[in-house]
Amino acid sequence: MRESGVIRTRRDGDVLAVTLDRPDRRNALTPDALADLERVVTDADAPVAFLSGAGSAFCAGADLGVVRGLRGDPDAADAFARRGQRTMNAIEDSDSVVVAGVDGPARGGGVELVLACDVAVAAPNASFAETGARIGLFGAWGGTRRLPLAVGATAARDLSFSARTIDAAEARDLGLVTRVVDDPRTVAHDIAENDPAALSELGTLLRDTTDRAASDDAEAAAFARLLAEPE
Fold it and tell me: Cβ distance 133 to 159 under 8 Å?
């Protein structure tokens, strides 16, 4: 087992279990946690990495204490958006097949984590919401590009504008996750039974990174504009 800030890892055969381990804050992500997660997925040496959250939540997204501290400082807001983008891009570019196992709520940046993974599966008690619009923000870690790719443009607008919460079954129906299973870990282990070289090649070919740089630039700039004025 390896500890990396609030990111805990454990090798289980051909699966690297990666756990967001900050249950008292619903696994909310700080800049340091994002940097640790980037290092873990970049250095992953297993054919499959399984990403989950400790406690009752998958991930509450960005730590709101950090976000509140960005008010009035657009440069810091831009830097925070780009920190998150680098982490999500590292997940998308990982040599491992990254499987998200959502057991409990995924909110805001937690949904962006799901979107960055190669495969996302949900336990029956999972729920999802892009909640940024409720607090005058939006997910700026690549979600504005990845969400329409996953669920289609119309559903992406609905989820983003309404900030409504959807359950596991609706997330599956929309395409945000592929399956609802009692134990998401089993999906990661099933994938790991396949040929590692084939998994690596397929991962490179199946990921859509079209226009990622331009989308990231636009996201970070818009996020910084929303935080430019102090409260």
Answer: no
Instruction: Tell me the CA distances in angstroms from 27 to 58, 63, 114, 198, one per residue in order.
Output: 7, 9, 14, 33
pLDDT by residue (tens digit) across 144-200?
Answer: 999 999 999 999 999 999 999 999 999 999 999 999 999 999 999 999 999 999 999
Assess whether pLDDT exceeds 80 at residue 1.
no
Task: At 133, give phi and psi (nearest 5°).
Answer: -60, -25
* Distance from C-alpha of 177 to C-alpha of 101, rounded to nearest angstrom: 9
CA atoms within 13 A on the CB side of 193: 5
- β-strand 2-4 against 127-129: which pairing, if any? unpaired
What tokens does 149 get? 């790719």
pLDDT surpassing 70 at residue 3: no
Q: Where are the domains of the chain?
A: 2-183+195-226
Give the other-Cβ count within 10 Å of 198's Cβ: 10
Single out the residue of 218, 215, 183, 179 nearest to residue 92, CA to CA: 215
pTM of the model: 0.93
Q: Of 122, 144, 140, 132, nearest to 211 (Cα)?
A: 144
pLDDT in tens, 29-72: 999 999 999 999 999 999 999 999 999 999 999 999 999 999 99
Architecture of the structural domain at 2-183+195-226 = Alpha-Beta Complex (3.90)
67's enclosing H/E stretch is: helix 64-68
Cα distance between the two ends of the chain: 43
Proportion of the chain in helix, strand, coil states, percent, rounded to 5: 50, 20, 30
